[in-house]
Amino acid sequence: MKQIIKQDGWEALREFTDARIALGRSGNSIPIQKELEFRLAHAHARDAVHSVMDVDALIDALKIYKLPVLALSSQVTGRAQYLQRPDLGRLLDMTSASMVAEFSAPNDLAIIIADGLSATAINQNLLPLLAVLVPKLVSVGLQPGPMSVVQQARVAIGDPIGDGLQSKVALVLIGERPGLSAPDSIGAYITYHPKAGLTDESRNCVSNIRPKGLSFERAADTILYIILESLKRKLSGTLLKNNAGSIGNSF
Are 113 and 199 in contact (CB under 8 A)? Predict the structure, then answer.
């Protein structure tokens, strides 16, 4: 049976978004090709959730920045538990907590790299992002502490790490929950004076960092802006958003 695909005014908008719009119709259903593309995207998203961060390769690549690199783990013991127990993904295991304590010394910024819900995002996009971001951080005189690479981690893992390292600001770069058009997106979370007990309103987020989303250059500029404002105002999260005005117009 021949497919009849009808288009409407939405078709012109497809070039501006990866969202599934203007798919056309075949009778009362969408075309087979679009159905197959949906299933493939869903498979990529599931694969991203269960992907594994290449810790050894990352640590080796991070040596270029001449900072100590800590290989840490949350209290999660496996991927199934990670998905079921977010609370454990926010806490360091005993070995990691001891390692952080050994490197404790006052610094401006803790850079924390976490697999999150898409290690694929970290494996593919972290190093290009850092190549743009770190020189910007150094250019304004920030003194980073050790970098941390954390497995089975949630965003709030930055609180005990930043607190333990005596960092003024914690920057968590983490694989975001994959969508059907974005299994490789990094989120950047900035927290001033990280410490146990903080909640999400204490953080600023820069989301959708990937080649087909927010570019590495624009993301690095926005992250730098938030960090500098956070240090100047001695706060982060919703209060910083209210005081900072439009971040997008600052560059």
Answer: no
